[in-house]
Design goal:
Elements: H1 2-18, H2 25-48, H3 57-84, H4 87-93, H5 96-109, H6 115-140
């Protein structure tokens, strides 16, 4: 499943970079979220059956936040960034999401950060940072003409 997700993400990244855009990502967002939510909802009912949900005020607030706010914002942000940054840099930066999640869980719910987790987080942070620094240098350096140009 992780391999399928990685290939899907790579395909989406290429499409976003190569697509000839006539609308902004924000204008396209409701259709994209709806196009994903409908088949996933049907699939969830087929696989899991009809759920029994005790709707509380807190649960409603969580669903309202995670659906239209968090998910929609994440889709919009990734699409917008992919349109302006190289796909490799964008997707490597997404590797920071688990690091942020681990730090948040340590701060909010006292999750223990083991030395192994800390080492993995540091390596992820270093890898993303080095990639972004290299990418920044590559974009800011003047383009040299190809040696065969003009001959």
């Amino acid at each position: 499943m992780l391999l399928v997700a990685a290939v899907s993400n790579a395909g989406a990244s290429v499409h976003i970079r190569r697509h000839s855009w006539t609308s902004s990502p924000l204008e396209l967002l409701p259709g994209q979220v709806l196009a994903a939510a409908l088949p996933l909802t049907v699939l969830a009912f087929v696989i899991e059956g009809v759920p029994h949900i005790d709707w509380t005020t807190l649960l409603v607030l969580i669903v309202l936040y995670q659906g239209p706010v968090a998910t929609a914002f994440a889709v919009w942000a990734q699409t917008t960034v992919l349109r302006s940054m190289p796909a490799i840099s964008t997707n490597l930066t997404l590797m920071m999401i688990p690091v942020v999640g681990l730090v948040a869980s340590a701060l909010l719910v006292d999750e223990k950060i083991t030395p192994t987790l800390l080492a993995g987080m540091a390596l992820t942070f270093a890898g993303v940072g080095l990639n972004l620094l290299t990418d920044r240098r590559t974009r800011s350096s003047p383009k040299e003409p190809h040696p065969m140009a003009g001959s």
